Amino acid sequence: MRSLKAYTGVLLLLLFGFLASSGSAEVYTLENGNTFEGTMATLDEDGFIVNLDIGEFSKRTELVYLSQETLRRLAENPKYTDFVTPFIDLPEEDMKPPEIIVRQPERLTLPEEKPTFFSSFTTPMGILFIIACYLGNLLAAFEVAAYRGRPAALVCGLSVILPVVTPIIFLSLPAAEGSYADHGDADEDEYEPIVDEATPATPPPPSNEGSTGVPAMGQGKLGIKRGATPQAAAASAAKVYTRSDTDFNRHFFETNFSEFFRVVPTPAIKDMVLEFKGTKKEYVAKRVTRISANELHLRLIDGKTEMSLSFGEIVQVKLRNKNDK
User: Fold this and answer.
1) φ and ψ at 304, to 5 degrees?
2) Is 231 exposed, middle or buried (0-12, 13-18, 19+ CB in 10 A)?
3) I need a labelling partner for 294 at 20 to 30 A (CA). Which of 84, 117, 179, 269 fits?
4) DSSP summary character for residue 41
């Protein structure tokens, strides 16, 4: 009797276990249509494993391969919600992008009338341009006054009242006596001997036939006598310096040929040139552009070529008229 009760209890337990196992078995569908029938053994971020009804375990499969229906069913279980929610597709109404509201910026109000040429002078750049032209007008008036030998205060004052017109008028008027323009426009034969006021006037020494000596350029300004012929002027101005009796250095050229350093030659030397005889070649220059401790730079007589010549190369320096050979 006891054995019968024991067998009956075992059968009941087996039956209860079968019913329990068959009641908890679920179907897990994949996206490709395959299914797993059984109970969920484990599920985490690395995937899931199903305890199949046939008594085996499935291979670990990633959650992304589960169908949407299976994912939603698993999401109802609090243990699996955090793992399966990222793989669930949202409804279309939730996937609608947010509406972007574009706000138009505030725009400047354009003038109704079309701009003209004169209205451009009312702008800051136009006012600056007018001021620059006005200052240039005063500068031009000052330069015209200095060039024509007129009072600078008079020319600049009138230019304040009548800009542009005043400098043109004074530039058209004849130059005042003794001004720079008056000397520049005069003919060569109108110049009389010019003597420095600081140098006492002394009678010139008697000239000997064949003599070539004249006062050095640094000791007094050269002058051309009224009515003198170019040949006589050239003969009286000729001067030769050689290495045997002269020390060619910076002090020598700055003292004896200071007027040849000017950009605009004075009337006294505008027909004179410096002839340099070097160790290899001869050069004829009309101006000394610059000088250093060891060499000087010359602008040759053609007016285009500039060359340098060291003091050690100079054998002879001759001051002569440019028409003489």
Assistant:
1) -115, -35
2) exposed
3) 269
4) E
